[in-house]
Amino acid sequence: MAVVRLRDAAMRFGARVLFEHLDLDIEPGEFVAVLGPNGAGKTTLLRVLLGLTALSEGTVEINGRAPRRGSHDVGYVPQQSSFDPDLPIRGRDLVRFGLDGHRRGVPFSSASSRARVARAIRSVGAERYADAPIGRLSGGEQQRLRIAQALIGDPQVLLCDEPLLSLDLAQQQGVSELIDARRRAADTAVVFVTHEINPILSYVDRVLYLARGRWAAGAPTEVLTSEGLSELYGTDVDVLNVRGRIIVVGSDESAPTEPGGHAHHHHDHGHDQGGPGGSH
Amino acid sequence: MTATLLYLSQPFAQHALIAGALVAVTCGLIGPFVVTRGMAFAVHGTSELAFTGAAAGLIIADNPIGGSLAGALIVAIVIGALGGRERERDSTIGVILAFGLGLGVFLLSYYHGFATAATNILFGNIFGVSNDQLLALVAIGAGVVVVMAVVYRPLLFVSVDPDVATARGVPVRLLDFVFLIVLALTVTAAAQVVGTLLVLSLAITPAAAAQRWSPNPLAVSGLSIGFALVASVGGILASLASTTVKPSVFVTSISFGIYVVSRLVGPRVARHRRRGVPDMPVADMVASA
User: Fold this and answer.
1) Which of A23, A166, B228, B230 is an S-S bond match for B206, by CB 3.0 to 4.6 Å?
2) Is A86 close to B211, i.e. CB distance below 8 A?
């Protein structure tokens, strides 16, 4: 049974259509990348799955139910944040938020919550720095703790919103591998919003490509073709396969924004892309 | 020393100590949130407008506490209604603050005994706390502690990690607003002890000092309350002993002293120095390469 089910889903803001007639079933353990230019509706789709935004039309179900705010059916991994180095929060506290941060009261820890937090930290290999202030960790270390935070509620779906943004290449690999390992071990479906597919290309089962109010879904090799994307964008787009990496080039400057194109790195360190990912 | 002990049997001194301890607990409690949320200037702005409110309260109803409470709450509501980003918020506060201070001075110029009244509001008049005022402070303090005990965890989540808190369905805007109200109440109470001008010494300094000792949020809250208590109660006792110097002088001095010591010998500083560069992506690259 599908863990995420979208039926005839549409999202519109006034006259602007982000997507419509979207049908999508995501199976347990499936890795789905959501691609498309800025403003195409990738993040809006995540907000729908989080229960923060209602669809304009159609239905959405997670585990057979309408998405609810704060549900443990979904885990959420954001892009790397810039924490103040003196912020009095440890990695351990950040992970704990995923368990009960939304609940009232004072976060005194019980033996069982301590054990769950410790287990989540161990599962991402972050024991060594879990007690350091979060603002003093590298982007990769932070994102590992983010994944622990998202997984501590044992979600069936992991929603990732540009989690690799502003990480260096090695960190991108480490974080992607971790997410892939988890979905295989626990059959967790992954919905991975990104502007840059190459770091996760070898893990992705299916791509959902949103552009100009239209969408296409299927295996990466089916969707990421010159014909397919040219049709979506309504203009000539070339998809090049270079050494196992996919490069999308548009004749129209405003068309595709990947790879790399409009990534807004809001944080300076860990910026060194070190490889072809940063080439524009 | 004997004089101090003699004073301690007097109601005015007992009132002062109770009020001072209460204010210290509430300030110490909200302090880490103020620092984490970057709201030091909002505290300052709220307390300046509490001055305007106190002046108005004094003229209209001979009730400076009621007036300062009203002033602080109005500012909190205005800041909350404006919402917006930190930079916009700060410039708005600056605008209101400047006008509010001027208005307060204008109002006080109609009051007999202008200088004494202004000094008491700006620098505190803890030894003049009446029974009624003490009751009001106890009520405010208890309210702040209860509300903070209820919202502590989600407020911490929202303060350090607003994006994920939003994604997890935490009512971010509601908590922002609740905190502004708590802030207004605390500032009003603190202004009675150290005066509106020096509220920062109880609402910010102990929390900033506590952060130097631990990255554990609960430990920081505990230390912050402890430091505020030492500064407040210690300052009042020192003032009783000296008989001529106002307690706010001692409160702010002790508070500042704790901060300086914390900066110099707190373990967080040492760790930072040893590591040199705060970022350390190398370990992670090795781990995942």
Assistant:
1) B228
2) yes
- Residue type, position B254, single letter: I
The torsion angle over the Cα atoms of residues A190, A195, A200 and A206, rounded to 10 degrees, is: 50
Between CA A27 and CA A177 the distance in angstroms is 20
| Alpha helices by DSSP H, chain A | 42-50, 91-100, 111-123, 139-151, 169-186, 220-223, 226-233
At residue A255 the predicted structure's pLDDT band, cuts being 50, 70 and 90, is low
B272 touches chain A (CB under 8 A): yes
Per-residue pLDDT at B84: 60
Cβ atoms of A187 and A29 within 8 Å: the answer is yes
- B52: exposed, middle or buried (Cβ count in 10 Å: 0-12, 13-18, 19+): buried
Q: Which domain holds residue B203?
A: 2-268
Same domain, A109 and A226: no
pTM score, whole prediction? 0.85
CA distance A86 to chain B (A): 7
B145 touches chain A (CB under 8 A): no
| The domain boundary residue, chosen from A107, A138, A154 | A154
Which tokens hold the place of B31?
């302090």
Residue A218: give the domain boundaries: 26-55+65-73+156-280
**Average pLDDT in chain A:** 85
Domain count, chain A: 2
Give me the pLDDT at residue B108, please: 83
In a domain, B243, yes or no: yes
Distance from CA of B228 to the nearest CA of A (A): 18
Question: Per the CB < 8 Å rule, is A149 touching B164?
Answer: yes
A40/A148 same-domain check: no
- Rounded Cα gap, residues B130 and B132, in angstroms: 5
| Lowest model confidence (mean pLDDT) among A224-233, A236-245, B205-214, B268-277 | B268-277
Q: What is the pLDDT of residue B60?
A: 86
Question: What CA–CA distance (Å, rounded) separates B223 from B214?
Answer: 9
Is residue A10 situated within a structural domain? no
